[in-house]
Amino acid sequence: MLARVRATAGRVATVAGAVLLTGGLGNDAVTLPGILATVAAAGIGLAVNPKVWRAPASVRWTAISLYTGPHAGCAVLLVGERLAPDTGVSLLVQAAAAALWTGATWILRPGRTAREFVDEALAQELADAAKAEEVAAVPVAPAYDSPQAQWWGERFAIEGGVAPGTVLLGHRQVGEQCLALVIGAQKRGQPVPDISKPGLSAELDLPEELIDIRPVPGRGAGVRLLVLGQRPAAEAGPGDSDAEVWAEIAATAMPGIELIEATTYEMPQELT
């Protein structure tokens, strides 16, 4: 109903403008009142079309220009009729301009065009906002330094996993059946959370006695050494020591770390 009223008002305004332009062809007294009437019509039209002047800032002035374009054009033609020379050719040109203005305004309906332009801009903004919310809702996948770090992060360090809040800092294949991992806390300055041996045993299907979690020599509680599997047996010989075993483990896992203290114990028969 409101759209029909606006359409009718637009048609009436177009006819009124055509009458003003026609009257201004031979009567200069129409110029000033016609311009004032045109300005008043533009102001009233904008006042009753809040969608136009409340449009998004990015398209507001474009929408206002579309809406007031016919009014501005009518005022310019009225001034041109006042200033044009009084000749037959000039009168024909003025009449043609008035007819062109009337036909273009009647067909294009700038008022409706401006409202549709605003609707499209609002729809685009809503679509962009919804898309931004969808992008924000998608969690950013963590970046891993290596496939092994990804394996640890996605299998053990996940929420509810056996080692949440940890990251894999390094790894070293010590022997055919022994793997050394250096685990750190995700948050700097925090100790490595307790890692459940039974949980690791169940997750890896590895006996608990083949899982060893201990401090890293020379490092704080924010780093832990995790040894999985059967440690290689040390062969007697010169230079064979725990320091060399640790050097082998830390060669790639934690470069620059030195063994400060070691404790030697006999491996139970059932573990060897």
Features:
272 residues, alpha+beta, 9 helices
Describe what this molecule looks like in 3D.
- The N and C termini lie far apart (91 Å).
- The longest helix is centred in the middle third of the chain and has 28 residues, at 110-137.
- A four-stranded antiparallel beta sheet has the order 1-2-4-3, sandwiched between helices.
- Helix 1 packs antiparallel against helix 5 (88-108).
- The protein is built from nine helices and four strands, in the order H-H-H-H-H-H-H-E-E-H-E-E-H.
- Residues 235-241 and 259-272 have low confidence and may be disordered.
- A hairpin with a 7-residue loop joins strand 3 and strand 4 (223-229).
- By secondary structure, the chain is α+β, with helices and mostly antiparallel strands.
- The chain has helices spanning 2-24, 31-47, 50-53, 60-83, 88-108, 110-137, 147-155, 197-204, 242-253, and strands at 166-175, 178-185, 211-215, 223-229.
Residue share in helix: 40-55%
The description of the largest β-sheet is: 4 strands, antiparallel
Q: Using DSSP, what is the number of strands?
A: 4
Overall average residue pLDDT: 80
Shape: rod-shaped
User: Which structural category do the helix and sheet elements fall into?
Assistant: alpha+beta
Number of helices: 9
TL;DR of this structure?
This protein has 9 helices and 4 strands, in the order αααααααββαββα.
